[in-house]
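Hello,

Our lab assistant flagged a job as stuck in the queue for most of the afternoon. It eventually completed. Since we weren't sure the result was trustworthy after the delay, we are filing this so someone can double-check. Below is the sequence as submitted and the structure that was eventually returned. Let us know if re-running is recommended.
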Amino acid sequence: MFSQLKNIDTAFKHIRLFSYLLIAACVLISGFAIYKSYQSSDNYKNHIYILANGKALEAYAADRKDNIPVEIRDHVKMFHHYFFTLDPDDKEIQATVTKALYMADESAKKAYDDLKEAGYYNNLVSGNINQTVEVDSVQVDINQYPFYFKCYATEKLVRSTSTITRGLVTQGYLRNVSRSDNNPHGFLIEKWEIVNNQDVSTVNK
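-- returned structure --
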């Protein structure tokens, strides 16, 4: 009889141990499932869909800090495009430069006023000169604020008789501002200056 009780007691201990292990496994599996579901939900929130030409395109939303260098480079590139890509038309020059001035402070406005006073834009119009700029690279330092940048670009002035190529180097700083239609990246260029703008080559037609 004592032997039977001992066996029952041992079996009960085994069953109890097995029950504890089973409960612990269930808790772990449930916790892991809950964690993964929250993680999946967060990932899902970061995915957005853009409708373009009748097609839904998936995009991934990331924190702005992960994209600051990319956004700075694009902001600087677009500013230089609007400021330096000019057609021989007064209204067109005014329209494109105005777009650039939304992206920078009074330092860019001063550079524009100086060029205008020197007759630079009048010369473009009277000489039927097309001016374009291609940004080669933008160096960015995000370890300081405002963020410092240095831009290297190639500028071309196309006349009916020749094409002049210039090496353009500018620098400045960027600070954060509110995003808008005129400033989608939410940066403002300040203390902007042209470091170098010298002729590299002239090709006669």
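-- support follow-up --
The delay was a queue issue, not a problem with the job. The result is valid. The chain has five helices and six strands. Strands lie at 47-52, 55-60, 130-141, 147-158, 162-176, 187-204.
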